[in-house]
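Consider the following assembly input.
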Amino acid sequence: MTALRLLQPADAPAYKRLREEMLAAFPQAFTSDAESARLRPADSYADRLRAGDGGFTLGIEAAGELVGALTCEIPTRLKERHLGHLVAMMVAPAHQGRGLGRQLLAATVARARQHGGLLQLTLSVTRGNEAAVRLYEDAGFQTYGCLPEAVRLADGQLFDKLLMRLPLQQT
Ligand SMILES: CC(C)(COP(=O)(O)OP(=O)(O)OC[C@H]1O[C@@H](n2cnc3c(N)ncnc32)[C@H](O)[C@@H]1OP(=O)(O)O)[C@@H](O)C(=O)NCCC(=O)NCCS
């Protein structure tokens, strides 16, 4: 049994635990690194988890444990407030492949449409991360560019980032 809900600052410790697990398990998928995340205090995630003008984070719980999350960040600068940037898409390994990622993305896009003023969503995804790319394409995201060698791991491996966008029809 899973439950999807808007996360709040009080969820910061659980969010930090999930994020650390994901950064350690999938270093090539994220721009942040696991060691910096480990040193980061839980309450530093409070702003990310406070829904408002700056965006929102949805989470999915299974048996009361946070197992997935996705954040939509909205810039503070006036000329960019029509953009929503999706970051930190993650579903814990034990829960992958069961539709939770698809659910998180659909709910985030739906909420972004209701936010008012958002004209498009953007995200970046490591080239070769087929699960994520297919998920985003299925939701209507299109690749508009690629930053070669965007991410460099501690062992020197370099990965390109695909840049994707989803226009939001305003009615
Ligand atoms: C990418 C991720 C969020 C997907 O979440 P998930 O819950 O496993 O995905 P879902 O079960 O909802 O699958 C949705 C779709 O994604 C694609 N997908 C999922 N797993 C896949 C796999 N192993 N191979 C290929 N496509 C896959 C499929 O299109 C799938 O749809 P389908 O089941 O109808 O075929 C999850 O695998 C994850 O957290 N990965 C590690 C971190 C990461 O890569 N984050 C994205 C950063 S941009």
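Helices lie at 12-25, 34-39, 100-115, 130-138. Ask yourself how this observation constrains the way the partners meet.
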